[in-house]
Amino acid sequence: MSHHDHRPTALAHRSSAPDRRVRVRVQGAPADSYPALPPEAERGSVRRITEVGEEVLSRPCREVTEFGTPELAALIDDMFLTMHLADGAGLAANQVGVDLRLFVYDCPDDHGTRHVGHLINPVLELPGPGQRRLIDDAEGCLSVPGATMDVARTDRAVARGLDKDGRPLVIEGTGYFARCLQHETDHLVGHTYLDRLATRQRKDALRQMTARRAEVSARRASKAADLGR
Hints:
It is built from five helices and nine strands, in the order H-E-E-H-H-E-E-E-E-E-E-E-H-H. By secondary structure, the chain is α+β, with helices and mostly antiparallel strands. Strands 1, 2, 3, 4, 5, 8 and 9 form a seven-stranded mixed β-sheet that branches. A two-stranded antiparallel ribbon has the order 6-7. Strand 8 and strand 9 (168-174) form a beta hairpin.
């Protein structure tokens, strides 16, 4: 999932001066502070981001069955750095070509709280029909570079899963962060946000991608160069 300029809170923790009032939740737990570049990203290597149309994005991902391994930790580190360099709010493993049920996130909610972490083998829980409030808002995807379309999502979501060591996690999200949890979980069942659009909207998104892909690629490359990656 990508950040959008029309949502200043989405960029606040990276583009503004430090604000001691900003709240942070790491792996679902409150944290006193957190660096703009997460420690995972500091350790990671850049991976290529897959694009819509590639087969790995259109099939369900496999459950993770081995925990606490150096390979799993390295994948998470690489995903954090790749997400950061692409100005992302979330990134699923199949977006770097790995068909495992795993995503990482560094995303604000609508109250300015920054949520940072990873979730493995997630199960998404949404409010029931009587409690559900759908919000239409702009959504982008790092695998559909340059395109933004309105997508209806519930304003609250809970994702249950595991961390890299196999410990249970419950991650709750509201507003923009709830949207992120839904977007990334969609990826793990082989869907992008384009699958939620009408045919005409989907064609519009693909036209935007064609027109802006080169600009997005150049911006990502420039940010990687600035970080020496």
